[in-house]
Write a sequence for this structure.
């Protein structure tokens, strides 16, 4: 009799658990394991991936000479050692200028999985996005003509651009951004949640599964969905109640407005949180989201379960060997501090 | 008869060349190839190298949270992708402060081979040197108490310090510097010149050997000698004629003074040159040294030959995978931009 009760409980619990898996598979997608399937997800038909492009793009991602000062590279604010972010509330750039809209640097890891880039979602892909910070005065402050003249002055770059873009004669700004984007497209970090989505229910602990269930049932997943666990849509922020640390007017003339829903992969590694990086605790970030977006007050247990689930989204970062960058020549424009 | 003439010429030329090798071996030393011999050169009895120390030190070298702002790490100015320097005339640091003495960031590659550190040679080893920039207001601006409280607040660092320094209870500032120095001690870059010094005369081209001969005979090697091709002594600068771009008073109250003779390994990769980074061309740097230190005017051919030799000192940098740094906790002090 005891055995029958046990088996019944086991089956009910298994069915219940299996239902959560099916529900999750309908809302999210795993990062594929096979090279071919992954390539379909990360490739851009307008900027086909190639080894040569990724190699060049990695160099350019780490290249501080893409900035006017020669001191700031993409990697300065999208620090690949720190979850792809700078770990600061407000991004800092050329001549220590803080982002004039108090914006926090988003991560480059898994950004390829998003349908839009920048906090206001104005950019459709990484190729378009990569140009922005290079030219922006408060970031790298380098006019595209300066960038191109630096790259053209260094024979090794000229060669590498020819290999990466055989149809083009010499480095140009579009191809600079395309190469950087190609490298960034490789920066995906599969996690235990992907193993779960692929059917391994043991990949998530009981608390993580409880957190996942709450994340779905309480409404978080209505925006944070898809392969990026977010990153696929914009949403009004704040929606129900005011945001206590400022409002979205930080970049929308002081009024609530439409904001990109950030992807939550690696969220435990990419604090501080929100567009203005005002919140350092992931628990508090979950509480605030519940209030501002869902009009709910989560219990401590709910927050703890959801945070446990969110931590299961921390993935393995790819191994990245730092590139060796070529020397300047006599015709390379000198950095302007 | 022709054969005899040829053989005689060959032997004379070989003898001549062999004499240069012997002379070079008396002045310089090769970076050893074997692990044991290399270890004798790079190890510090007061800070014995260990895998655990080097692993931790690499993380700390790339750790921007060692700075007050959370934005600047050792790697910011000693960029391992750019020959271990920042490629700027004047070092820039906390809140974009330029070095108040207009000093140029020296390379970390092969600094372990030097007998003193900093431009004025005030520091006897890397363990002592590593503390300076962390605390200096115009560099990383982090008081040691702040550094230690940040490290203590991150459990992964506490564990790694215990592994690296089993006798010590918790992270402290001395051990932070020791770990960084341990990593830096591994940053040596053997070059073709080392192959030459070990007896492979074909490792240097004819012009490079001519340049080496001139480098010795014209007096450059009287200061730039030893395993670091410099880095072993201080010398008055300028010695014979004034330095045209400023004087050593940049850090000596406006008067000529004793300056560390920089090591010339990788010199072709570590411009701009001199303590104030005023010279971008290696050719011009050689001309200036001839004038200010030797009271000579080198011919164009001399400069070209010596520069050819100097380029043979560009070595292979070690493969470095970027580290993953641990997340902050609730008790980690927040960065102060």
């Amino acid at each position: 009799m005891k055995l029958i009760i046990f088996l019944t409980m086991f089956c009910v619990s298994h069915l219940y658990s299996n239902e959560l898996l099916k529900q999750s598979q309908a809302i999210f997608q795993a990062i594929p394991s096979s090279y071919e399937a992954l390539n379909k997800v990360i490739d851009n038909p307008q900027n086909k991936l190639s080894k040569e492009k990724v190699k060049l793009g990695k160099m350019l991602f780490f290249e501080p000479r893409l900035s006017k000062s020669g001191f700031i590279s993409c990697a300065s604010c999208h620090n690949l050692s720190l979850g792809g972010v700078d770990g600061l509330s407000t991004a800092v750039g050329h001549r220590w200028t803080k982002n004039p809209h108090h914006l926090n640097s988003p991560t480059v890891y898994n950004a390829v999985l998003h349908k839009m880039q920048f906090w206001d979602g104005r950019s459709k892909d990484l190729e378009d996005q990569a140009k922005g910070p290079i030219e922006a005065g408060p970031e790298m402050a380098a006019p595209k003509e300066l960038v191109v003249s630096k790259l053209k002055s260094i024979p090794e770059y000229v060669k590498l651009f020819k290999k990466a873009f055989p149809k083009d004669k010499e480095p140009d700004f579009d191809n600079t951004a395309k190469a950087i984007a190609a490298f960034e497209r490789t920066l995906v970090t599969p996690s235990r949640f992907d193993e779960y989505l692929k059917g391994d229910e043991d990949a998530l602990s009981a608390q993580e599964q409880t957190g996942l269930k709450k994340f779905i049932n309480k409404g978080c997943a209505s925006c944070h969905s898809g392969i990026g666990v977010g990153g696929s849509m914009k949403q009004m922020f704040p929606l129900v109640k005011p945001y206590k640390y400022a409002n979205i007017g930080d970049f929308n003339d002081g009024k609530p407005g439409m904001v990109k829903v950030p992807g939550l992969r690696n969220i435990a590694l990419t604090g501080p949180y929100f567009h203005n990086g005002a919140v350092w605790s992931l628990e508090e970030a979950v509480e605030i989201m519940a209030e501002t977006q869902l009009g709910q007050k989560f219990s401590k247990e709910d927050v703890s379960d959801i945070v446990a689930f969110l931590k299961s989204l921390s993935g393995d970062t790819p191994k990245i060997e730092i590139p060796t960058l070529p020397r300047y020549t006599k015709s390379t424009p000198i950095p302007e501090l």
Observations:
- The longest strand of chain B covers residues 234-237.
